[in-house]
Design brief:
heterodimer, A: mainly alpha, 5 helices, elongated, B: about 150 residues
Chain lengths: ~110, ~150
């Protein structure tokens, strides 16, 4: 999947809000997602289209209802690529710090 | 109300290779953090996930199978009592060929509100699928062992 599409999709507060709402309650219809939002139905539909295009939202049909689900796989790939590899050095720094602090006698 | 999650990933491979990676032991243990799947992959067959230390993690049954396109599994956890108590979940795996890539869709659901089972698998699937994608596209996984 295209990383640019994922970052572009995430670079918008309204779209992140929609993902937050799906995270709390997965598998919502467009009308559920519009409830209580200060956005027109068309705007929400457009944002969902961009999220779907970036593979951050997956849709499934239940009869005539289109349900939207958050798809965490692209976010996980980003996290592995840019965060996961920093994890090891950080853990090493912490354990070195612990070792050096514990070596010093307590006052 | 059911609890469900859907995971979608696009992998540059063929449906046959992806199917092999989903079903054969030598592949599954590479990207499933050392665990592997055991089944003879026929409708009605039993199915299980074995952990590296020999414990059975999950068990179930193949409800529907249509290689290399679709499979439906009844799936129950075995080693965590509060998950086992929730009974069977349903996992549907679908492969769709899209140009030079395959779209793999995994939906995992259970007929229960806020199921712990779905919460537990939702932590695992994204990492397993990222590993599977790198294994098929580059020949290596990003995270060989569970953290």
């Amino acid at each position: 999947m295209d990383d640019d599409a994922v970052f572009k999709a995430l670079a918008d507060g309204s779209r992140r809000l929609l993902l937050d709402r799906l995270f709390r309650n997965n598998g919502q219809r467009l009308s559920d997602l519009c409830a209580g939002l200060d956005m027109s139905r068309q705007a929400v539909a457009k944002h969902l289209g961009i999220l779907e295009e970036a593979n951050l939202v997956a849709v499934q049909w239940a009869g005539r209802e289109k349900l939207h689900f958050i798809n965490p796989v692209p976010i996980n790939q980003i996290s592995e690529r840019w965060i996961g590899k920093f994890e090891l050095p950080r853990m090493r720094v912490l354990s070195d710090l612990k070792a050096s602090l514990e070596k010093k006698p307590r006052k | 109300m059911a609890s469900s999650f859907i995971y979608v990933t696009f992998i540059r491979t063929t449906p046959d290779k992806l199917w092999t990676a989903l079903t054969e032991r030598e592949f599954t243990e590479k990207y499933w953090f050392g665990a592997h799947l055991v089944s003879d992959w026929k409708t009605g067959s039993s199915w299980k996930i074995m952990l590296k230390d020999g414990r059975v993690a999950d068990t179930g049954e193949i409800v529907e199978i249509d290689p290399p396109r679709r499979m439906v599994i009844k799936w129950q956890n075995e080693f965590m009592p509060e998950l086992k108590a929730e009974g069977y979940s349903r996992c549907v795996m679908e492969i769709e060929e899209m140009g030079e890539a395959c779209k793999l869709t995994i939906s995992h659901s259970i007929e229960k509100d806020n199921a712990k089972m779905i919460e537990a698998v939702s932590g695992g699937w994204p990492r397993i699928l990222s590993n599977l994608k790198s294994l098929l596209e580059t020949g290596a996984v990003a995270l060989p062992d569970s953290p």
